[in-house]
Description:
The complex is a heterodimer of chains A (about 350) and B (about 300).
Chain A: H1 20-24, H2 33-43, H3 45-67, E1 98-101, E2 104-107, H4 108-111, H5 129-165, H6 167-181, H7 185-195, H8 200-227, H9 230-237, H10 242-278, H11 290-299, H12 305-333
Antiparallel strand pairs in A: 1-2
Helix pairs in contact in A: 2-12, 3-5, 3-12, 5-6, 5-8, 5-10, 5-11, 5-12, 7-8, 8-10, 9-10, 10-11, 10-12, 11-12
Chain B: H1 2-28, H2 43-52, H3 59-71, H4 86-121, H5 126-140, H6 143-157, H7 170-200, H8 203-210, H9 215-228, H10 235-252, H11 258-267, H12 271-299
Helix pairs in contact in B: 1-3, 1-12, 4-5, 4-7, 4-10, 4-12, 5-7, 6-7, 6-10, 7-9, 7-10, 8-9, 10-11, 10-12, 11-12
Pfam families (chain A): BPD_transp_1 (PF00528), OppC_N (PF12911)
Protein name (chain A): ABC transporter permease
Subcellular location (chain A): Cell membrane
Amino acid sequence: xxxxxxxxxxxxxxxxxxxxxxxxxxxxxxxxxxxxxxxxxxxxxxxxxxxxxxxxxxxxxxxxxxxxxxxxxxxxxxxxxxxxxxxxxxxxxxxxxxxxxxxxxxxxxxxxxxxxxxxxxxxxxxxxxxxxxxxxxxxxxxxxxxxxxxxxxxxxxxxxxxxxxxxxxxxxxxxxxxxxxxxxxxxxxxxxxxxxxxxxxxxxxxxxxxxxxxxxxxxxxxxxxxxxxxxxxxxxxxxxxxxxxxxxxxxxxxxxxxxxxxxxxxxxxxxxxxxxxxxxxxxxxxxxxxxxxxxxxxxxxxxxxxxxxxxxxxxxxxxxxxxxxxxxxxxxxxxxxxx
Amino acid sequence: xxxxxxxxxxxxxxxxxxxxxxxxxxxxxxxxxxxxxxxxxxxxxxxxxxxxxxxxxxxxxxxxxxxxxxxxxxxxxxxxxxxxxxxxxxxxxxxxxxxxxxxxxxxxxxxxxxxxxxxxxxxxxxxxxxxxxxxxxxxxxxxxxxxxxxxxxxxxxxxxxxxxxxxxxxxxxxxxxxxxxxxxxxxxxxxxxxxxxxxxxxxxxxxxxxxxxxxxxxxxxxxxxxxxxxxxxxxxxxxxxxxxxxxxxxxxxxxxxxxxxxxxxxxxxxxxxxxxxxxxxxxxxxxxxxxxxxxxxxxxxxxxxxxxxx
Lengths: 339, 310
């Protein structure tokens, strides 16, 4: 189709003035590193879903033990070995309190004349498994968070000092690390736990005793990379103290990598706690952690699979969530992956 | 290269020495005594037993004797299995552990590589998400949870395979091997996916495509070969995972292997066996990591072991 010049009057046109300033104008708002990372993390559906799930699990670990007013260590032998029964869902044919008794399928709540609902059932001592599960989750998360925190503090301090001061300090510190890194984590954890009073502190110490090494190596490598760069040199030339260079220039730059690593430290701490408790050298009864609950459940798996099912589900979901968040954060924070 | 290997060997030796020393002295601080179960003995009988196991001498002397024997490969005598040497105990239990580990390794790596290839070739499709999710499951779900579930459903509900023990030939090894294989499977699937994606975007793949090579040839002949090389580096964590896994998986399936031996020796305070197994596991892992580092330099000449400095 041919345009008719007559139909387009000249006053409809506007002359474009080339403005030299506009070439330099930034049209998009400038984003800080963290805003940029958040934008990328938001696109990662798996990581976002995991965060929501994780927040829910942490909330349940905090409020779950108080939800039904039962205590996790009160034994009620008359109510022992009850299968799960949840109001509402019971009509769907699952979680309706039906279990096997002497080879027959019966509503054990009727047989034992129990009017209450035990949402996740009870164990062989008649303890409420719902309360115990969330108490256990709480303990497991507590151990994992504290162990991860210790790893971060020691790892960043050790790696930071070694990398920043360099020279002979670095040499000596790295020789120590090179010997320590050869010792398999599992062996150290088991040996440490054997010589200490079993309990939360023992598990935390056992997990942290070599846990910081990985972090320290990563931090050292990062510090080495940044401390030779111009902005640090400039700061030093202007007379900044070590303290200022470390806190204002180096730490903010390695923070991303430290966070990513912490996200992978937490699930491995959860795993080690559960592992130790499962083979029987971790937390001791009546304390509940995900590991001891799985161990209890494993023993009666043949007859009451639900005792194993719930803690197994919670630990698996926790581990998956932490791993997915870790993956998401790595993609979002690691500048090498930036597209 | 020779200098590097020599340096590594010295470190390996130092690490082993440290582990042996630490284990020895930690054992001395353990609560309870290996001969606690002999409590019906009177003073002189106890002295005889202590003399027999050499624990009547002062600690430094015991340590010297232990280290001297260790240097000759002798791990001492078990306190619980009377008169049996730890070497014999480990040797008799080596086979099941080795078979399980090897099967898990082969099965896990092959399936993992296949999953990784599929994910990389069909990037951002259902296949990719499926295999990535599977890999996340493998890394996340603790081996003992997975092993318990396998045992519950496959063995005790469906009666397909033996519930445990080691007396049904190859059949007894299937479930524990699968439980152990999840780790290597997940690690190699993730690793191959990343490597393949990187390799597939390189120039020589574009060239192969331009020359008209078909998809299959490109994936397996050109891309996979190069993506496989760095997989060697995963061997270290995989070996560590297999040892960790074997402790619980052998326990769950009642397999008479070294892992099960370790856990039961901890329970029975059998100092000599705990030390022997600890040293065995440590030596195994240290040697694997050493081999990985050397192998990587040999098969990929682009990597220089000395760390880039000439």
